[in-house]
């Protein structure tokens, strides 16, 4: 028999129109947020600021010391203690190394090798990366891609590379500093992934309008990939500017030495600094000031270029590295 007892219903509070409900409101999505998405506490913020400040001081200290020593008078270096600010300013060390001819010629060589090498590397990297994005249209593209990835795991070594450079007639020429490392596998993969992230509809609409592959690459792909192009160009430029090992192996003529090899010979190896002076018989500043001046001259150009590309750095690397 059915229970016909009337049960009391819970009281329902009717709020006036426009009045918000009482009591604490639930915060949607708060429980799903990861810990690193929460706002850091003041203590954590202060700790991060302290750590970053210490890192900046550790990085800046040797740079300030080198610059101070290179701009100091040679009599100021006779005393003990650290020199972080020149007592008596002097440009004698820079006048000596720039008037000697060896450092100036090495700077010109490094600039030309870096500019030409970066251009050659970017042309080859962009063309290869764009071709490898068309694995269905280009025959053998997937096989070439596996070959490129294989070079990231296996390398030929110094002796086979030297024999290859010698047999191709590039020994003791500037091309030996550019051609052997013209395409870096990591940079190629980054550029290829950046190209693959572009919408396929852009390419389809361009082909419908009658655009060829060269027009698509020049008018669509490159303008939309400025960030990754700038970052990869910086990678190639820094590698070419900092490379001294290739010059030490492949160049026999000292007149063709880049600035990094000059820096190594006269700073690390401790060769006589008389070759840096215009007149070997004239008295020279202290070797320490000359060494620091050569270090500043070898480092300054790349430090000037880096800030102009830094704004593309994070975006360019992430765009080319997110997609596998």
What can you see in these coordinates?
This protein is an all-alpha fold and 324 residues long. The protein contains 13 helices and no strands. It has helices at 42-70, 92-100, 102-132, 141-150, 158-167, 185-196, 200-208, 213-224, 226-242, 245-250, 259-268, 287-310, 313-321.
Sum this structure up briefly.
With 324 residues, the chain is an all-alpha fold. The mean pLDDT is 80.
Throw out a few tags for this protein.
58% helix; mainly alpha; 324 residues
Q: Count of helices?
A: 13
Number of DSSP-assigned strands: 0
- What is the global morphology? globular
Compute the CA-based radius of gyration. Answer: 31 Å
Main beta-sheet annotation? none
Mean pLDDT: 80
Uncertain regions: pLDDT < 50 for 5+ in a row? none
Order of helices and strands: HHHHHHHHHHHHH
Distance between the termini: 69 Å
Kindly estimate the percentage of residues that lie in beta strands according to DSSP. under 5%
| Helix/strand class | mainly alpha
Give the fraction of residues assigned to helices: 55-70%
Q: Which helices and strands appear, and what pairs or packs with what?
A:
Layout: H1 42-70, H2 92-100, H3 102-132, H4 141-150, H5 158-167, H6 185-196, H7 200-208, H8 213-224, H9 226-242, H10 245-250, H11 259-268, H12 287-310, H13 313-321
Helix pairs in contact: 1-12, 2-12, 3-6, 3-9, 6-9, 6-13, 9-12, 9-13, 11-12
């Amino acid at each position: 028999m059915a229970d016909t007892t009337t049960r009391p219903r819970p009281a329902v509070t009717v709020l006036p129109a426009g009045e918000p409900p009482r009591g604490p409101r639930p915060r949607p999505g708060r429980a799903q947020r990861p810990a690193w998405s929460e706002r850091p506490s003041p203590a954590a913020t202060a700790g991060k600021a302290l750590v970053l400040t210490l890192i900046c001081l550790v990085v800046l200290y040797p740079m300030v010391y080198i610059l101070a020593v290179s701009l100091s008078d040679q009599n100021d270096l006779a005393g003990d203690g650290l020199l972080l600010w020149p007592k008596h300013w002097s440009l004698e060390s820079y006048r000596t190394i720039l008037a000697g001819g060896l450092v100036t010629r090495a700077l010109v060589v490094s600039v030309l090798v870096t500019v030409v090498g970066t251009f050659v590397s970017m042309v080859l990297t962009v063309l290869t990366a764009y071709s490898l994005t068309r694995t269905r249209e280009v025959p053998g593209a997937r096989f070439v891609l596996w070959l490129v990835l294989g070079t990231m795991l296996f390398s030929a070594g110094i002796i086979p590379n030297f024999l290859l450079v010698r047999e191709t007639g590039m020994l003791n020429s500037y091309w030996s500093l550019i051609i052997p490392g013209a395409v870096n596998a990591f940079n190629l993969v980054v550029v290829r992934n950046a190209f693959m992230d572009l919408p396929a509809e852009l390419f389809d609409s361009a082909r419908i309008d009658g655009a060829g592959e060269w027009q698509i690459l020049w008018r669509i792909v490159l303008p939309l990939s400025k960030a990754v192009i700038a970052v990869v160009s910086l990678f190639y430029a820094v590698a070419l500017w900092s490379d001294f090992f290739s010059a030490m192996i492949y160049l026999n003529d000292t007149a063709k030495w880049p600035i990094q090899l000059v820096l190594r010979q006269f700073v690390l190896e401790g060769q006589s600094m008389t070759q840096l002076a215009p007149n070997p018989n004239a008295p020279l500043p202290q070797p320490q000031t000359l060494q620091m001046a050569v270090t500043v001259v070898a480092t300054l150009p790349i430090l000037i270029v880096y800030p102009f590309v830094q704004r593309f750095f994070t975006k360019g690397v992430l765009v080319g590295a997110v997609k596998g």
